[in-house]
Amino acid sequence: MIENRVKISDFVKLTGSTLKTVLYYHKIGLLQEPERSLGGYRLYGPAELSRMQSIKHLKSLGLGLKRIKEILGDINNHKTLREVLQSLRAELLSEKKSHEERIAKIEKLLSEDTVPLDEDSFASPSFQMIMDILGPDKIEKYARTCPELFEQQRKVYSILDDFQWGEDYQETFRALAEFFKAHPQEYQISLDYGARLASLAQLSEDDPEVEALARESAEFIKSMPQLMEILGKQAGIKTPLASLYNDMVANVISPAQVKHGQLLQKYLASETNIAGDCKTPALLKDNKR
Q1: Among residues of the chain, what percentage have pLDDT more than 90?
Q2: What highest taxon heads this organism's lineage (predicted)?
Q3: Residue-wise pLDDT tens digits, 218-258
Q4: Is residue 1 part of a domain?
Q5: How many CB atoms are closer than 10 A to CB 272?
Q6: 250 to each of 105, 114, 246, 257, how far by Cα in Å?
Q7: CA geometry: angle at 160 spanning 141 and 138, to 5°?
Q8: Structural domain contains residue 70
């Protein structure tokens, strides 16, 4: 001890840090250089200890050194500290929500007899967004009226989300969900079409119901200019990705449903620019939910 000062070796032990850490703090200006003895030794006192105490406290909150330096640059500016802590709290709450969602997914997987890694095991962000917009009542009605189509859509949306198909469907999905949320009568009609669409899975491609449903669905969509405008902005998956996408959804969408989608695209294309290499069945079926 030299009066109420200690050398750097004792300061390191006292603060529970390392020599490398203290020297680094000096280098970046986080810890000011202390006074020196006549022999050139650094001498640390109460001010340096208080500074290290503040640094340790802020680090324990998850703050980085750059942010800590900004805060301690004006130790009397309590507003700056409050703003930083409020921002940090928001970040941590966001991370907490993300962790809780991940835990829920893991628990769901562990609750199954097996732990598959296919598209059925993980929630689709797009499908979740649509459910959030429509709300629990409409989603419950959708799942009750068209349970097969509900599961089919969930799988197809997962395939769309898991790969970069060269087309961003998020905004189209959002617009469709918001449209049907604002138009409950049209939403109910779309559920009736959805139930018929689901029943196509049991029919052959040549069944008259396939073309009849495509024509009726097209007329239903054409009767709503706002819906036509939303669909007109979607270009579709381009070649050669279109054929690859079709292979990916082949075990989800039946041949009759695929043909229905192709016919629907054809009938709609005569009224708008909804032409493209591949309109995803998920998108077209979403119109009738």
Answers
A1: 43
A2: Bacteria
A3: 999 999 999 888 887 766 777 778 888 888 888 889 999 99
A4: no
A5: 15
A6: 26, 24, 6, 10
A7: 10
A8: yes
Give me the pLDDT at residue 81, please: 72
Same domain? 100 vs 170: no
Question: Do 213 and 199 meet the contact criterion of CB atoms below 8 Å apart?
Answer: no
Classify residue 283: in a domain, yes or no. Answer: no
Residue 192 lies in a domain: yes
Q: Which structural domain range is residue 50 located in? A: 6-77
Kindly report, residue by residue over 179-217, the tens digit of the pLDDT: 999 999 999 999 999 999 999 999 999 999 999 999 999
Position 286 pLDDT exceeds 50: no
Q: How many structural domains comprise the chain?
A: 3
pTM: 0.58
Question: Cβ distance 95 to 101 under 8 Å?
Answer: no
Tokens of 68: 């800590």
Please indicate, yes or no, whether residues 61 and 156 belong to a single structural domain of this protein. Answer: no
What would the DSSP string read from start to end of 216-283? HHHHHHHT-HHHHHHHHT---BPTTHHHHHHHHTTTTS-HHHHHHHHHHHHHHHTTSS---SB--HHH
